[in-house]
Amino acid sequence: MSVILYRYDASPFSVKIDNVLLLKNIPHEKVNVASMMPRPEISDLLGITYRRIPILAIGNDIYCDTSLIASALERRFPKLRGYGTIFPNKKHGAGADTGLIKAFSKYWPDTALFPLAPVHLPWDKLPPQFVDDRSKLRGAPINVEAMVAQRGKSLSMLSTNLALIEEQLADGREWLFDTELPSLADISVHNVYGWVKTLRGVESLFDANTFPKSLEWLARLTAYLGRLKQAFPKVPKITGKDAAARITAASFEPYNVVGFDEREGARLGLKAGDEVSITSACSARDRPWTAVDPQLERDHVIP
Fold first, then answer.
1. In sequence order, what are the residues at sequence separation of 6 or more whose Cβ sits closer than 8 angstroms to the Cβ of residue 297?
2. What is the pLDDT of residues 191-209, one digit of tens each?
3. Strands of 55-58's sheet in order across
4. 149 Cβ partners below 8 Å, 6+ apart?
5. CB 146: neighbour CB atoms within 10 A?
6. pLDDT tens column, 250-302
7. Are the C-beta atoms of residues 159 and 138 closer than 8 Å to each other?
8. Which of 31, 100, 152, 289 could bridge across to 280 with cysteines, CB 3.0–4.6 Å?
9. Residues in domain GST N-terminal (predicted)?
């Protein structure tokens, strides 16, 4: 079963899924796409207008959104089959906090923390084409001066949230949920602060006197991922054309894997066999998600 990741190097969320694949030790290939639209490898060859990155294909099944991608990788490449896990057991023998880690990762680092970070990009030095592309994504023109003016407020809010990490680590635990190994929670928070740390003008945020345990945790996870990457086979790059040919020729996961929940269906006014349309919750204003290829739509491309 082939795994193909559509990504680009400067995308923090691409790096997040890179790290999930590392933790789980899943062999995969990658298609490097542009940081700006258009991305014909996705829109033309797969018939998908979803514009956010990364996108992951497992066989003929295509997953968008990093939370969904992470859950799909954990389900389809389980620990019982020899893969790693992003939901490790507690260090002292208790089971994994799977549901809580999923909720935490989606609604704190991804939804609350990450939006604070992009103002620290060098907006005044970026190419106009990039600013225009992200303005279309946002659905309104980006005011570069206003972005720059928000940096102080952003640093203050990132500092307030980093204090919560410091509090969580105060008992000397190695990982955020006191797990045997790093979990999706660690990967998700690292995705924000690890990326921000690479940007200019943020040095005051990473004060070792104020946040000693947090910075130790950040360095510990960075080093841990670095060791995994050194041991991991080099990820092959393939072309969008070759990837699309492989994906369209592959088999897909049976529909009955999840099944139909009659109670939930009734709440939505649905019954088994009803045809439904799917609308993405993605906030990209210029490209609401659709599956324009009927074959891909039938094979449940997931928004």
1. 291
2. 999 999 999 999 999 999 9
3. 29-32, 3-7, 55-58, 61-64
4. none
5. 10
6. 988 876 666 788 999 999 999 988 888 766 555 555 554 443 333 333 333 32
7. no
8. 289
9. 1-81
User: Cβ contacts of residue 279 below 8 Å, gap of 6+?
Assistant: 288, 289, 303
* CB 247 within 8 Å of CB 41: no
Scored b (16 or more CB within 10 A) or e, 212-240 reads ebbbebbeebeebbeebeeeeeebeebeb
Distance CA 92, CA 188 (A): 23
Cα distance between residue 145 and residue 237, in whole Å: 38
pTM of the model: 0.88
Burial 251-277 (b: 16+ CB within 10 A, else e): ebbeeeeeeeeeeeeeeeeeeeeeeee
State the residue for tokens 């074959």: 295
Residues contacting residue 214 through CB under 8 Å, at least 6 positions apart? 162, 165, 166, 169, 193
Phi/psi at 230 (nearest 5 deg)? -65, -35
